[in-house]
Design goal:
Rossmann fold, 11 helices, 40% helix, globular
Length: 289
């Protein structure tokens, strides 16, 4: 295994400005894995263990999350453009890109702005228009109002308030089934920079990639979940929203799990791996480890 702490900034010696860290494992076709908000690249440990014999796995941890030093806003644009440079500088030919949540948004953003760089995309429980998850018909004015409220809320938090909120699990309990996984999310949240988390959240909910999806050339698999949010939605509404949001992405395949919560790779890995094996065109499914 080789551990690389690489970024666009690294090439010029400015490690403090790195938009992400990268851990590289395995050999074969390049595969880039991007975790979500406040999450470590360890999100993908079981995925790497399954595919490292066939893929060279480049696992990101975004700056500001899980102990990695933050970079100035705009965070999401820096990560998107940094990833494009990383692909070019490391001569990664059509890498498969798998992104979870915020990481899924970054995968879409990369493929929309740099359509010739990525190979296949796998988007794990992510949307091109996050503000439209709860309000599918949200207007720009409503989105601006919502984001302004988010900035006011996060801006009013000191470190103690942020830590108390993170430890409560209010925002993360519904995302996972097992207590041990919740403990992981809380630990990563506490190790994240609260300003970076606020910047990323506000940028994510301000963004709308729905029309930009038409520029994407990559075959794309979207894996969605709903069971963790059943107090707010149901399978039918979730499926309709996913198809509505991804309407401009030609040939997109959408699959929905009825058992896993937001962290599908933890709650139902075999369901996810089954779809991944098929979508990645593996002649023989990778055996479970």
């Amino acid at each position: 295994m080789k551990l690389l702490l690489l970024s666009v900034a690294l090439a010029s010696g400015l490690l403090a400005q790195a938009p992400f860290q990268v851990k590289v494992t395995g050999h074969g076709q390049p595969l880039i894995l991007i975790p979500g908000l406040s999450s470590s690249g360890e999100t993908w440990d079981t995925t790497v263990a399954r595919y490292q014999d066939r893929f060279e796995c480049h696992v990101l941890t975004v700056a500001g999350f899980a102990g990695v030093p933050r970079v100035p806003a705009p965070m999401l644009d820096r990560v998107r453009d940094g990833l494009a440079d990383y692909i070019r500088k490391n001569h990664l030919a059509k890498p498969v890109i798998i992104g979870h949540s915020l990481g899924g948004y970054e995968a879409l953003a990369l493929a929309a702005k740099y359509p010739d760089l990525p190979g296949k995309l796998v988007i794990v429980d992510a949307y091109p228009f996050f503000a439209g998850i709860a309000s599918p018909d949200a207007t720009p004015a409503q989105v601006n109002e919502m984001v302004a409220g988010m900035r006011q809320y996060y801006g009013g938090q000191d470190q103690d308030a942020y830590d108390r909120f993170t430890k409560s699990g209010v925002a993360t309990r519904i995302m996972v089934t097992r207590d041990s996984d919740l403990d992981r999310l809380i630990a990563w949240g506490l190790a994240s920079d609260r300003t970076a988390v606020a910047d990323a959240m506000c940028e994510l909910f301000s963004a709308d990639l729905r029309n930009d999806l038409a520029r994407i050339k990559s075959p794309t698999l979207v894996l969605g979940s709903w069971i963790g949010y059943k107090q707010y939605t149901n399978r039918k509404n979730t499926e309709a929203n996913l198809h509505r949001q991804y309407a401009q992405l030609d040939g997109v395949e959408i699959q929905i799990t009825d058992t896993a919560r937001h962290f599908i790779m933890w709650d139902d890995p075999e369901w996810m791996f089954g779809h991944l094996d098929r979508f990645l065109g593996l002649a023989q499914p990778v055996p479970a480890r």
